[in-house]
Specification:
The protein is 30% helix and 22% strand. By secondary structure, it is of the alpha/beta class. The protein has an 8-stranded mixed sheet with strand order 6-7-8-3-9-10-12-11, with helices on both faces. Strands 2-1-4-5 form a 4-stranded antiparallel sheet. It is globular.
């Protein structure tokens, strides 16, 4: 087994009051031209746990993941690793953070360098971090390839010679190479066939257990998060609207947007209460965010207060947060 760094901090990674906006072309609906991707998000990720981040495309999930991974700088707020702000880390500590926080990217077809052999791709984090001799790196890569189900004889092949599922295994192997403590996976199965999705989900679960990983899984598909995550955060237009333990979220949600996402999960039982879509209209533009509750134009529970007052993200039940004026109406 690869040696993993031990941590004593309950929250290995956290984000505090994170904001990220982009300057875009001005329009009639957005005279400032500001696109709000992340708007005041706070979250904590416990060591050894799995956190799921869910929401529609355009809600800010990937931006948040890149900020947590240190690949993107927030406009304000801070990311803390083992209790220390990333902005205050020394160069050596920054290198350690980057080694111990790895990312699996969404597209297995564009996230691998087509000019590199897969053995070199997997070994790249070791080379960048200066870990081991060439022979030691070779042995490590061969071990990891075997662990993720890639034959060692494929070491010298190029990415175009592999299927989508195999390329995602290469991405997972690359993320594991530097013995990380945190892996952030952005839509790790969205571009794969259903049967391959199950294989990758099972592989991630096995890797989490074997290497004592902390996982952050970003997905628009709640059914994926249900099988792998301890805690789930629901995002909508750059904010968190609900946060709950995964099993409780699927038992009973406390925000109408979560209810709509759950209703969208395919079911065999056509007589289910959520057998028909309950989400109306399209996602509003992040350049023209609605007043009050951001979800109210699409919400079937909306009343006058919803368009006027922003519902705070607050504890509705033990360990459960929601941002809704009418959480008690959702069953």
């Amino acid at each position: 087994m690869l040696e993993m760094p031990m941590t004593t901090d309950d929250n290995i990674l956290s984000g505090r009051n994170l904001y990220k906006r982009y300057q875009m072309k001005r329009s009639a609906s957005s005279p400032t031209g500001l696109l709000t991707a992340i708007d005041g998000i706070n979250l904590e990720i416990a060591s050894g746990k799995s956190l799921g981040i869910a929401g529609e495309s355009g809600c800010g999930k990937s931006t948040l993941g890149k900020i947590l991974a240190g690949l993107l700088q927030a406009d304000s707020g801070e990311v803390r690793y083992l209790g220390k702000s990333l902005a205050s880390l020394s160069p050596d500590e920054q290198l350690s953070f980057r080694r111990h926080t790895q990312m699996i990217f969404q597209d297995p077809f564009s996230s691998l360098n087509p000019r590199m052999r897969i053995g070199d791709i997997i070994a790249e984090p070791l080379v960048i971090s200066g870990i081991g001799s060439a022979n030691a790196r070779l042995r490590t890569v061969e071990t990891i390839m075997s662990t993720v189900g890639l034959p060692q004889e494929h070491y010298n092949r190029f990415p175009h010679e592999f299927s989508g599922g195999q390329r995602q295994r290469i991405g997972i192997a690359r993320a594991l190479a530097a013995s990380p403590s945190i892996i952030i996976a952005d839509e790790p199965v969205s571009s794969l066939d259903i049967s391959i999705q199950a294989q990758i989900i099972n592989l991630l679960q096995a890797m989490k257990a074997e290497y004592r990983l902390t996982l952050v899984i970003i997905s628009h598909d709640l059914s994926v998060l249900r099988h792998i995550c301890d805690q789930v955060v629901i995002m909508y237009l750059g904010i968190v609207v609900e946060c709950a333990p995964a099993d409780e979220l699927f038992r009973r949600c406390l925000h109408p947007y979560t209810e709509a996402l759950l209703a969208a999960i395919p079911r065999i039982d056509r007589g289910s209460r959520h057998s028909t879509p309950i989400l109306k209209d399209d996602l509003p533009s992040p350049m023209a965010i609605p007043s009050g509750c951001r979800f109210h134009p699409r919400c079937r529970y909306a009343q006058e207060i919803c368009s006027a007052e922003v519902p705070p993200l607050e504890e509705k039940q033990c360990s459960r947060l929601a941002s809704c004026h009418f959480s008690n109406n959702i069953y």
